[in-house]
Amino acid sequence: MSANPILPQTVASSVKQSATKVSTMPYVSATGLTSDEVAERVASGQVNAVNTSTSRSVADIVRANVFTLFNGIIFAAMIMVLITGSWKDAVFGFVILINTSIGIVTELKAKRTLDKLSILVAADYVVRRDGHDETVAHNGIVLNDVLWLRAGDQVPADAEVTDVWGIELDESMLTGESRTVRKQIGDAVYSGSTVVSGMALVRVTAVGEHGYAASLTREAKVYRKTVSDLSRGINTILKFMTFLVVPLCVLLIVSQIRTVGGWDVALATGAWRRAVVSAVAGVVGMIPEGLVLLTSLNFAIAAMRLARHNTLVQELESVETLARVDCLNVDKTGTVTDGGIAFDQLIMLEPDGADSGSSEQSAKQALYDLSNEAQPNSTGQAVLTGLREEGINAGSVIARIPFSSARKWSAITDEHNTTWYLGAPEVLLNAFDGDWTNVLHRVTEYAHDGNRVLLVAKTATKTVFPHAVLPQDGENEPTLNPTAQPVALVLCTERIRADAEQTLAWFRDQGVRCRIISGDNPATVGAIAAKVKLTGERTPVAMDARNLPNDINELARTLETVDVLGRVLPDQKKAIVQALHVDGHVVAMTGDGVNDALAIKEADLGIAMGNAAPATKAVAQVVLVDSKFSHLPDVVARGRQVMANMERVASLFLVKTVYSALISLGVVLTAIPFPYLPRHITYIGGLTIGAPAFILALAPNTRRYIPGFLQRVVRFALPGGMAIAISVLLSSWLLPGIIGWNLTDPADLAELRATNAIIVFVLGVFVLARVAQPLNSWRGILVAAFASIGIIGMFIPFVANFFALEMPTGHEIVATMIALLIAAVLFIICHVGVKLVSRIISHGKPTRQS
To answer: What is the pLDDT of residues 17-46, one digit of tens each?
Structure first.
């Protein structure tokens, strides 16, 4: 303790401050740094400035959304078409602008929201400089500053205690341990912890990035983009197409140049432009640009819907990850509990040896008065709140000894000259006469059940106490009356969130394995897990993390049988996530403290509470702005809707990729003019793929995601793509001879391409109908509506001219109808054939439908 007494008088300080008045402080002899010393440290950069950015920078967000493989391919194709002067065939390039804008706007909105959240934790602090108290901002603190820490303050920098007046810190943000820690002179305090009670004068030992909290989260600050299974599948297709597109584009250009008479003719007549446009038609068709756009749109819509429920999605791709989560690790404090203390009950100790004349009502009145101090700590506040709800109000107190962490007890004398004590059971009982083993045994049992236990005792003998504000030299320290006897046990528990049990039950029903991971005592955490029915009717298996194996594979095996882990260190939380990955689990991790940052970053889906440390929110993909655990089921359900529906509609886009690749290959091998224009695919794709897929993707769907997205989509898309490709190639090979078209004549070539566009449109409607099943609902109306819109558009002059659409006339009608009939037969044959081959390969097992 300090050699300076705490005096009840105020000290007139010369205060340097902006607008806020510095609170009255105890008298101390420390002068702190001089103005010159502060200036020197500021000049040398020894200030408490730290990067508190809660998310990626604007430049990072823009760069991540602009420079993608998809944008590169589409942009290159668009430039090639624009060089030819055929801007109508370059409209597909607008998908780059739309897709990129969606990603940038959504992530910038999330960034702005997070930045606002981080401003809420900004605060001013009182430092001692030139012998006076002065208010400075967080960033104004310098190395070796003498800093006041008061109840409610968040420690802004690492420091060493030099003077102390019963200070207690909550270090749960750093350690996960919810119990408060009492500090003495010479003890270290770390940035990120919070002062619960008392006061101290400390000397700053580390500032800014050199602080403990900053060093703990340095690894977490390295940005790692979430890669969803859906995005991975699309990227796989794009990478494959990248290797295929470049040589195929060259071959297409060469083949189209030959169809117009060779390079000399093409360059002389300008026919090379038509060859380039035809080549790009094949290239663009192979790229599922609509799927990339629709994925971004659905992610953005899901993010906006979640935002209305105070759930902030920082990265769009994380929405899909929600659908795949099968393992959820939750932090106890801040997730299952709200970090507060609640008064549970008062248990009278009669007939265990206490005074049989004491009544529960008088014990409750004494408990209220014992807790009703000038500045009650969190436990005292919880007791007061609980007893007020029972109608207990303040009584008459003659004398009081305030609670002290050093003594671990407080006392009052009431109007009946009865002295009451409240404090730690082991401290009080050890000072009382008699054998209280049975009471200590009950205390231990309640503590193991997760309760914070206090003891109420009394003596009929009036005890004369010294002044309530005591000297700090140890003299006149009050002592317990050994004749006092225990009256009751006070049980306080961590306040469990009202929605915790229901939320955990939802995850359990959905097949998601939940574990509680905490820095607290495993017995305490296990008791809370049992209260919220973490494992249903089964008793949760709790384990001390200090007994966990270091080997990652052995740790993975251990975790399969463990539901609750206590005394977990930050590095262990990260190792636990890594061990779950060994067994192929998709892991979500919730938390609010700096000690959770590494594990949240390592998890497939990091979820931070809105009141979390800025570093923790920075690495999380999802932030529960109002810190409500009950939002998580809606978060997961929204992810499942997006993923299940995207798998359904992805087949539409992959069909186009398949038939475009096959048609391009057929064109190169047989040296025929390309059978349609890029604008044809834009029109057909918009009506049979893009627009209906967007509507289908928004339909309700709660199916849990099943791994193997790409394989199922490809298996579904192959028959439709093959049928369309074969039909268009047969039409291009046979119809000119049947009808007498001369494909060197632009007019005849335009008619062939218009006919092929009709074939692709009709078969596209067939594919849409198959994807939209069952059709005996709004889905059937959807298919009919888009089919009708496509036909009507061909009779609207502006639409027909812009997209180069023509209705067949005369003998062309018969040829077109025959071609459509053959195409329909091929469509059925391909679908049946692929299904039979799939069943043979899988030994007769039916394929899983998307």
So the answer is: 333 334 456 656 678 898 889 999 888 888
pLDDT at 147: 92
Q: Domain span at residue 837?
A: 227-305+643-841
pLDDT at 191: 82
679 phi, psi to nearest 5 deg:
-70, -25
**The domain spanning residue 161 has which CATH number?**
2.70.150.10
Confidence band for 541, pLDDT divided at 50, 70 and 90: very high
| Residue 87 pLDDT class (50, 70, 90 cuts) | confident
Domain-located, residue 77: no
Q: Which residue has the tokens 């290797």?
A: 243
Residue in this structure with the two tokens 């006897």, named with its chain if needed? 485
CA distance 213 to 156: 10
- The alpha carbon torsion through 442, 448, 449, 454 (nearest 10 deg) reads 60
DSSP secondary structure code for residue 221 in this structure: G
pLDDT score of 53: 56
Task: Say which DSSP state 737 is in.
Answer: I
- Whether 658 is in a domain gets the answer yes
**Phi/psi-derived region of residue 727, left when phi > 0, alpha when psi is between -120 and 50, beta in every other case:** alpha
- Annotated catalytic residue 331: yes
Rounded to whole angstroms, the Cα distance separating 181 from 451 reads: 18
Q: Do residues 651 and 789 both lie within one domain?
A: yes
Condensed to tens digits (0 to 9), the pLDDT of residues 821-833 reads 998 898 889 878 8
809 and 787 within one domain = yes
Q: What phi and psi, each to the nearest 5 degrees, are found at residue 33?
A: -75, 155
Residues 726 and 833 in one domain: yes
CA 686: distance to chain centroid?
A: 33
Q: For residue 160, what are the β-bridge partners?
A: 188, 203
| Residue 308: C-alpha distances to residues 302, 507, 513, 592, 642 (Å) | 10, 22, 27, 21, 17
Of 331, 344, 592, 604, the catalytic one is 331
Single-letter amino acid, residue 64: A
d(CA 588, CA 585): 10
Backbone angles phi, psi at 403, to 5 degrees: -65, 140
For residue 685, is pLDDT > 70?
yes
